[in-house]
Specification:
The protein has 7 helices and 24 strands. By secondary structure, the chain is an alpha+beta fold. The protein has an 8-stranded mixed beta sheet with strand order 15-14-13-24-17-20-21-23, with helices on one face. It has a 3-stranded mixed beta sheet with strand order 2-1-6, with helices on one face. Strands 4-3-11 form a 3-stranded mixed beta sheet, covered by helices on one side. A hairpin with a 4-residue loop joins β13 and β14.
Length: 374
């Protein structure tokens, strides 16, 4: 019986020791946990070791110092040059010039919360042992404001070459026609240019090459159509199809004291059997009716082509066939009725009448140009 009592006492003492040790360990663990909690609470405004923002080490820093450290690196990055090339021309701009900005504060706030998924003791041990949690927070850049659009518009204005339409023109001294050949132009596609610049900024590139688009001419030599050329020095009218003469006729132009004005004029109206309105009731037309309706005896004959030259100039028929080929009109361009009817069917409103050359200085009324074939 005595032996049984001794066994029970030994077991009791062992259990008591275990309980005391366990309690002590719990007290120690609780103390450590409490201490760790208090430590973490007092360091909650500091970023854990091993946290970087776009490679900038901000571990152990508070928010203000971390923002300052990241901003210093960002300011250097935003001064990097972006070179834009197009059509042999070049522009240099910094990322900051183009409106690129960095979300520094937001990145630092994410750095402050790095390691929140760790337990209190884990965070505590990382801090006291300066053990890295190896987290890099991505710094988010954005481009804002009108700078990219303005640059694209500036570039577009510099590189644009308007397409040139084919045309019959007039030379500098108005003595002959010029052939203006069609030529393609170029332009910058603004939206494409803007997107390319934004992509280059986003991808941290140093060079972006922009493309231009070809602009086709609206009128080519083959689509130019018919135009009229009147040589006053020859008293001859030529009908061109594109750059080729397809027909010509003798005409009458202004007699001394009057002018058939040189220039490139537009056809704005065309009439069959036009009425004639006396343009000079107080001078040379004083003895004539104010209006002569279309029909036999009308001074403008059977057809009239109205052009916007000064002086109410027309290309028209006549009742005086003997005047054709001579310097005989008050400025208009006269033709035989049958010939102006032929011409009338070949041209249309919007086409041109180009008047070149001058009446010889010594030419008199009813004279004909040298080598005339009327």
């Amino acid at each position: 019986m005595a032996q049984g009592r001794h066994v029970r006492r030994r077991r009791f003492r062992a259990a008591t020791i275990v309980a005391i040790v366990a309690g002590a360990m719990l007290l120690i663990a609780g103390g450590v946990s409490y201490g760790a909690y208090r430590f973490e609470a007092s360091h909650a405004d500091l970023i854990l070791p091993g946290v970087t923002v776009d490679g900038v080490d901000v571990g152990g820093m508070d928010r203000a110092h971390a923002i300052a450290a990241v901003r210093a690196a960002v300011d250097v990055n935003l001064q990097r040059q972006l070179r834009i090339q197009v059509a042999g021309m070049r522009w240099n701009r910094t990322a900051a010039d183009l409106g690129q900005r960095a979300g520094i504060a937001a990145a630092v706030d994410r750095a402050l919360t790095a390691g929140d998924d760790l337990g209190t003791l884990d965070r505590f041990w990382h801090r006291v042992r300066h053990e890295s949690i190896d987290v890099d927070v991505t710094l988010r850049y954005r481009t804002e404001g009108p700078a990219v659009d303005r640059l694209a518009a500036t570039i577009a204005g510099k590189v644009v070459i308007p397409a040139r339409d084919a045309a019959l023109g007039i030379n500098a001294d108005h003595t002959d026609v010029d052939f203006v050949y069609a030529q393609a132009g170029r332009k910058l596609l603004l939206q494409d240019a803007r997107n390319a610049i934004l992509r280059a900024l986003k991808r941290d590139r140093a060079l972006v090459r922009l493309d231009t688009a070809r602009v086709a001419p609206s009128v080519t030599r083959s689509t130019l159509g018919h135009n009229i050329v009147v040589h006053v020095d020859q008293n001859r009218l030529y009908l061109y199809d594109g750059f080729q003469v397809v027909k010509s006729w003798a005409v009458a132009t202004a007699k001394p004291g009057y002018t058939t004005p040189t220039g490139v004029w537009n056809i704005y109206d065309m009439r069959e059997n036009p009425s004639w309105y006396n343009p000079a009731l107080d001078s040379w037309g004083a003895g004539l009716p104010a209006v002569i309706p279309g029909g036999p005896g009308n001074p403008m004959g059977t057809r009239a082509i109205y052009i916007d030259a000064p002086g109410l100039i027309r290309v028209h028929g006549t009742t005086d066939d003997s005047s054709i080929g001579r310097y005989a009109s008050h400025g208009c361009i006269r033709m035989h009725n049958a010939e102006v009817e032929d011409l009338f069917e070949r041209v249309s409103v919007g086409q041109h009448v180009i008047v070149v050359g001058y009446r010889p200085a010594n030419a008199g009324y009813w004279d004909v140009p040298a080598a005339s074939d009327i």
